[in-house]
Design brief:
Structural class: alpha+beta
CATH superfamily of the largest domain: Nucleoside Triphosphate Pyrophosphohydrolase
Order of helices and strands: EEEEEEEHEEEHE
Number of domains: 2
Bound molecules: zinc ion
Shape: elongated
Radius of gyration: 19 Å
Length: 185
C-alpha cells in the first residue's frame, strides 16, 4: 500500500496514536489502514461414498485438484460464501451444511473454513474457474496433485471420521504436508 484510499495521500508505516503495532497511516487525512486476515470458505460436497473435487483453471496451483472454496465477500455469511463458491466453481448445489475444518494460516494471513455438505443432485459441471469437476472415491483421490494442504487435510479427516460417522470440528494450525508433498509453490 502506497496511497490512502480515502484521499489519495501518501501512506507511511508508523504506530498510530494509542496503538501498539505498525500500521499504514495517511500523512494527509491521518486515516489508519488496518490489514487483517482474510477468510476462505468452502465445501466438502459428498455424494454417497464419493466426494466432489474441482481441478483449478486459474492460478495459483492451476491444474491441481481442490475443494470448491474462495474468499468471503462483504455482506455474506460464511455458509453463504461456501455455498456460493460451490455454485461458482462446480455449478453444484448442496444441503445439510456442517462446519468441519478450520485452519489458521498466520504465515499468509488467511483462515480456511470448510463445511461438510451433501450434493443435492448430480447436475454439476465445471464453472469458469474450474477445468473439470468430478466425484472421487477415497481410493481414487489424486493426492499427489492436490492444490492446497488444507484441502488434503480436510479430506484425510473426512475419510478417517467417516469410519465412525463422527465428524468433530477440527481447528488446526498451518496443516503439515502429510499426504500432499507436491505443492509447487
Ligand atoms: Zn488519507
Amino acid at each position: 500500500m502506497k496511497f490512502c484510499n480515502h484521499c489519495g495521500g501518501p501512506l507511511v508505516e508508523r504506530i498510530p496514536d494509542g496503538g501498539n503495532r505498525v500500521r499504514f497511516v495517511c500523512t494527509n487525512c491521518h486515516a489508519v489502514h488496518y490489514q487483517n486476515p482474510r477468510i476462505v470458505a468452502g465445501c466438502l460436497p459428498v455424494w454417497e461414498d464419493q466426494v466432489l473435487l474441482c481441478r483449478r483453471a486459474i492460478a495459483p496451483r492451476k491444474g491441481l485438484w481442490t475443494l470448491p472454496a474462495g474468499f468471503m465477500e462483504n455482506g455474506e455469511t460464511m455458509v453463504q460464501a461456501a455455498i456460493r463458491e460451490t455454485e461458482e466453481e462446480a455449478c453444484a448445489r448442496v444441503s445439510g451444511i456442517q462446519l468441519y475444518t478450520l485452519f489458521d494460516l498466520p504465515h499468509i494471513n488467511q483462515v480456511y473454513v470448510f463445511f461438510r455438505a451433501e450434493l443435492t443432485d448430480l447436475a454439476f459441471s465445471a464453472g469458469v474457474e474450474s477445468l473439470e469437476v468430478a466425484l472421487f472415491r477415497e481410493a481414487a483421490i489424486p493426492w499427489s496433485t492436490m492444490a492446497f494442504p488444507t484441502v488434503s487435510r480436510t479430506l484425510e479427516c473426512f475419510f478417517a471420521d467417516r469410519k465412525t460417522q463422527v465428524f468433530p470440528v477440527r481447528n488446526e494450525l498451518t496443516p503439515p504436508l502429510v499426504t500432499s508433498p507436491t505443492c509447487t509453490s
